[in-house]
């Protein structure tokens, strides 16, 4: 590629690894096409990212912006995985505190484009002031993004008559084609959390509405083969280009930083299990389960008789497994309480089923 055709693209994902990893995969795809990337996050998150492929290190610059101190945000908490769910609004306050440092970086580096997430509602205005084109990249599907509202202004202003969980269990009225796609009741209850003002001072709906309204292009982690109707509907609703960029699976040759120590005992156990027999259970860092839910799930897994690997993060010891559970399932199941290399576990031939928060 000629130097004059090379673009400089800045990327600014939300501080969750479920967001940062897809953004990093997109960064690799763009860099492989000869463009320059500035991938912006916080120091500790940058350290925890998977190593870059050697052939792309010259094209992808990892930029660290330290988070400001925020009351009620624990030290070294720089991602959602470091926090219980109810503390995440304080992470958003710290994230919003990056405005000035991000402005100065963009002003000095002059990227052609910036790709941003749902959270920095203040960023489109900065990009416009600096003459930088903006892309909102949603890691969610087109239908999920469509559910937020019929337009960016409706999402931004909270102009939505849907106030009860059951309102979200049917397709919204602005879906103009036959569809049965909607939330289940437990999903709808969680979705409503995003419509309430939290300690950060704004709703997640306001954040999403702001970036949709202020971007030049919407990029969706999806493809026409999966949801062509919803992708076209998004273009109609928002009046701007919507680009499906694919599902961005992890690179074929991946490496998860710091994984060796954890992976060795996990792989040894998985290697002993029959092909396709293991149930992998992982709910991520942003789902808070009650004691009753933990107990019911544990007893159900025990009664199933199936081999299982359960990645259970319980940093504050707020819930506990039933008495004697681990002893009764010893040899058949593993409860793993530290960080788990999910991509390697999912790729192992013994894993035949994945139970996550979307299947609760």
Model description:
With 360 residues, this protein is of the alpha/beta class. The protein has two domains: 3-244, Rossmann fold (3-Layer(aba) Sandwich); 260-359, Rossmann fold, CATH 3.40.50.2000. Helices cover 37% and strands 14% of the residues. The protein contains 14 helices and eleven strands. It has helices at 17-32, 43-48, 88-96, 99-109, 123-130, 142-147, 152-157, 185-192, 204-214, 224-238, 260-271, 291-304, 325-328, 342-347, and strands at 8-12, 36-41, 60-64, 113-116, 133-138, 217-220, 242-244, 278-282, 308-311, 333-336, 351-355. The strands form two sheets. The protein has a seven-stranded parallel sheet, sandwiched between helices. Strands 10-9-8-11 form a four-stranded parallel sheet. Residues 252-259 have low confidence and may be disordered.
């Amino acid at each position: 590629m000629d130097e004059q055709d090379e673009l400089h693209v800045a990327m600014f994902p939300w501080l969750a690894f479920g967001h940062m990893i897809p953004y990093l995969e997109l960064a690799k795809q763009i860099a492989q096409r000869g463009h320059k990337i500035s991938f912006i996050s916080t120091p500790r998150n940058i350290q925890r990212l998977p190593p870059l492929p050697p052939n792309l290190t010259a094209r992808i610059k990892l930029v660290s912006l330290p988070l400001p101190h925020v009351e009620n945000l624990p030290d070294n908490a720089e991602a959602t995985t470091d926090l219980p769910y109810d503390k995440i609004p304080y992470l958003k306050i710290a994230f919003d505190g990056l405005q000035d440092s991000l402005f100065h970086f963009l002003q000095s580096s002059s990227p052609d484009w910036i790709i941003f997430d749902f959270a920095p509602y203040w960023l489109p205005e900065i990009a416009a002031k600096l003459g930088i084109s903006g892309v909102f990249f949603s890691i969610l599907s087109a239908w999920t993004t469509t559910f937020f509202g019929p337009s960016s202004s409706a999402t931004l202003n909270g102009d939505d008559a849907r106030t009860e969980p059951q309102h979200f269990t049917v397709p919204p009225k602005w879906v103009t084609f036959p569809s049965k796609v909607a939330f289940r009741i437990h999903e709808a209850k969680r979705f409503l959390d995003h419509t309430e003002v939290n300690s950060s001072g704004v709703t997640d709906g306001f954040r999403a509405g702001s970036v949709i309204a202020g971007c030049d292009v919407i990029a969706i982690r999806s493809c026409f083969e999966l949801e062509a109707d919803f992708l076209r509907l998004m273009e109609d609703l928002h009046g701007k280009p919507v680009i499906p960029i694919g599902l961005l699976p992890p690179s074929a040759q991946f490496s998860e930083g710091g994984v060796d120590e954890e992976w060795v005992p996990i792989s040894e156990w998985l290697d002993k299990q029959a092909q396709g027999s293991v149930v992998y259970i992982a709910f991520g860092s942003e789902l808070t389960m009650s004691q009753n839910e933990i107990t019911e799930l544990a007893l159900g897994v025990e009664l199933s008789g199936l081999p299982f690997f359960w990645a259970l993060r319980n940093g504050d010891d707020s819930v506990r497994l039933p008495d004697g559970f681990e002893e009764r399932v010893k040899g058949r199941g593993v409860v793993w309480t530290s960080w788990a290399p999910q991509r390697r576990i999912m790729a192992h031939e013994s894993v035949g089923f994945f139970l996550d928060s979307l299947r609760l």
